[in-house]
Design goal:
single chain; alpha+beta; 5 helices; 32% strand; binds manganese (II) ion
């Protein structure tokens, strides 16, 4: 695993993203980081990351994860990211690689359900358990036949049947797990494009959770949205 591709794509004088080093800390048995970053870039997607060999293996999931075992979500493998990236929430300047707003949508740890993770990755069939705030229980990433040149990078993320499986749309749970902010809040506080970020948040009609608990922020967000449209 190498961070060359990650570093080549970014200008660290411009983007606030971590420049990163491959970490020499490796813990095969416990406390492997799992994180999903919701990213309103050119297109909205969810970046799914698993710590392995001192970096974060990364997949971009256009539709986000589904708790429904009958639903398979396309996950395009992208370049490995540095471990530090797991805490990155903020604004990547427009014109830079991945320009837009990034939210830590879910975070926790993961455990492989197989003995040989490298062999499972090679084979294209990795079973694992997530201990996140939003995603829990057993999942699988399976490599699939994609289209054209990206064929070896196409995987599917699928929930296994267990007590955490559900037909509830987990993507409606749209706030950051580290700051409780919506994308529009993060963009606003980070000097980003609030109107663009807000298109990745649920529409104001469906934003019922936490409104009563955070009246100020909800009102401010609504105001900003109004201005933006
Ligand atoms: Mn991304």
């Amino acid at each position: 695993m190498t961070l060359n591709e990650y570093q080549k794509k970014r200008h660290f004088g411009v983007t606030p993203e971590p420049s990163g080093k491959a970490s020499d800390h490796e813990d095969k048995d416990s406390n492997l980081i799992y994180v999903i970053q919701k990213h309103r870039a050119t297109n909205l997607h969810y970046d799914f990351r698993l710590e392995w060999h001192g970096t974060l293996l990364s997949w971009a999931i256009p539709k986000g994860p589904s708790l429904d075992p009958s639903v398979k979500r396309l996950a395009m493998q992208v370049e490995d990211h540095p471990i530090d990236y797991a805490n990155f929430e903020g604004v990547i300047p427009e014109g830079e690689y991945g320009g837009g707003t990034v939210m830590v949508w879910d975070k926790g740890t993961w455990e492989p359900e197989v003995e040989e993770v490298d062999a499972a990755l090679q084979k294209g069939d990795l079973k694992f358990t997530l201990h996140g705030k939003k995603l829990k229980g057993s999942w699988v990433l399976v490599r699939t036949r994609g289209y054209g040149r990206s064929s070896d990078r196409s995987w599917l993320l699928i929930k296994h049947r267990d007590q955490f499986a559900s037909t509830r749309d987990v993507n409606e749970d749209a706030r950051s797990v580290i700051s409780k902010r919506l994308l529009a809040d993060i963009a606003s506080e980070g000097g980003g494009d609030v109107a663009k970020a807000a298109t990745g948040d649920p529409s104001s009609k469906s934003t019922t959770p936490k409104r009563s608990a955070r009246p100020k922020r909800a009102a401010a967000t609504a105001k900003r949205r109004k201005r933006a449209t």
